[in-house]
Design a protein that fits this description.
- The chain is mainly β.
- The protein has a single domain, classed as Porin (Beta Barrel), CATH 2.40.160.
- Helices cover 0% and strands 66% of the residues.
- A hairpin with a 7-residue loop joins strand 9 and strand 10.
- The radius of gyration is 21 Å and the shape is globular.
């Protein structure tokens, strides 16, 4: 008689996730002065707990153009194919295009505006969706009391046209999200060229399906290179 998989004791390894990939990037100059581009390709696998989740392949093209001495426009296109190890219906194709305008202000601060559009196509109707995200980011060049500060705000919209809960949802599922964050890098706490940073992030998501409404706040600590 087969044992009940839900009756065994949960292990720490069941809660883990693993990501592994191998990739190549080729960066080259374009014909226009100050214009560069990157071609990239990746192959990889992911695991959830001790089980293989999916295999993926990804290709991307990212050109960047200097519009003015302190202004640059970065574009991006990406296509990814995922092959699920759970069931073929969870296979998906992800396509994304993005544009980001970067500007260096006279005082050295950095301001950027970005827009990203994404389409996910799958035989599983609750996975397929189209989304758009707009964001604005600001980084202060001069540390404030030895703390380098940057902040960001993003607005997102995602629509699942064929979403189903015990039957199709009329009009599909639509989510709106707002996310804000502040990152602080403690430049004086330098150890061998590495410094700690703290990010505080808060987000709110509202949906026409109430179970997906949420409010979240997180604080994360990381170590990064000072350079």
């Amino acid at each position: 008689m087969a044992s009940d998989p839900f009756s065994r004791q949960l292990k720490k390894s069941d809660l883990g996730s693993t990501y592994a990939d191998i990739g190549i990037d080729h960066r080259f100059a374009l014909g226009t002065a100050g214009a560069v581009a990157t071609l990239s390709a990746k192959l990889g696998n992911t695991w959830s707990g001790q089980n293989k989740n999916y295999t993926f392949g990804q290709v991307g093209f990212s050109p960047s153009f200097r519009l003015a001495p302190k202004t640059r426009l970065s574009l991006g296109t990406l296509v990814e194919q995922r092959w699920s190890d759970i069931a073929p219906k969870y296979d998906l194709t992800r396509s994304q295009v993005s544009a980001t305008l970067h500007h260096r202000i006279d005082n050295g601060d950095h301001l950027s505006f970005g827009l990203s559009l994404q389409d996910i196509s799958s035989d599983e109707r609750n996975i397929s969706n189209q989304s758009a995200v707009a964001n604005i980011n600001y980084s202060f060049a001069k540390p404030l009391a030895s703390i380098k500060v940057s902040t960001g705000l993003s607005l997102g919209y995602t629509h699942y046209d064929g979403y189903s809960i015990s039957g199709p949802v009329e009009g599909g599922r639509s989510d709106m999200s707002v996310t804000g964050n502040v990152t602080m890098v403690f430049t004086k706490l330098d150890v061998a060229g590495f410094v700690p940073s703290v990010q505080v992030q808060t987000s709110r998501k509202s949906s026409n399906i109430s179970r997906f409404n949420s409010n979240e706040m997180s604080v994360s600590l990381s170590i990064q290179s000072k350079f």
